[in-house]
Write a structure and sequence with these properties.
mainly beta; Glutamine Phosphoribosylpyrophosphate, subunit 1, domain 1; six-stranded antiparallel beta sheet; five-stranded antiparallel beta sheet; globular
Amino acid sequence: MQMISLEKELKENSYPGRGIVIGRSADGTKAVTAYFIMGRSVNSRNRIFVEDGEGIRTQAFDPAKLTDPSLVIYAPVRVLGNKTIVTNGDQTDTIYEGMDHQLTFEQSLRSREFEPDAPNYTPRISGILHVEKGTYSYAMSILKSNNGNPAACNRYTFAYNNCVAGEGHFIHTYQCDGNPLPSFEGEPKLVAIPDEIDAFTELLWNSLNEDNKVSLFVRFIDIATGKYESRIVNKNH
């Protein structure tokens, strides 16, 4: 698979929707993840990321403008021991609870499917980073309608072991803007992961469409120690 420029990919797509990036820093020492949200409606744009324990949650920026919390208010990031879960919906909790009861990442998601937001049927995208005693692996998942047909849910899981320094994968909800919005297709895209959290945060935020971007979260986890640092950028502040 050819490595693509994350900056170019984002700048040329006005509406990839919500996106997850997971990989390993170029120097090999950090497990890296990023999650961003975008919005076209007032309800979707009226959000911020806030810290919540070791993870984050979405929150209405102006509570008076919140019309329907069901698909916009959730915890995108939660930590379970040496596992960091990143998703675009409340399936974060499904994965957390499933893995807490000895289910795998994939098994935990079998009870879920795409979002019930006809006619888009937005895919549920999820990721998990497993950092333990100096080793690191990750997996990504997408649950999507069968080419826009809500009668069937197609489930795909991609697992990455012995992660290569400087490489990561990017998955997002929509191919591009449209009505209805076309779901992401294919396997996660191979992208470069740099060493420096602030530079990576700035690259992502500056590459997202100015009108549609809402919030961004970035975390670098030290593979040797498990210690992490995070960044949150909110358009509303």
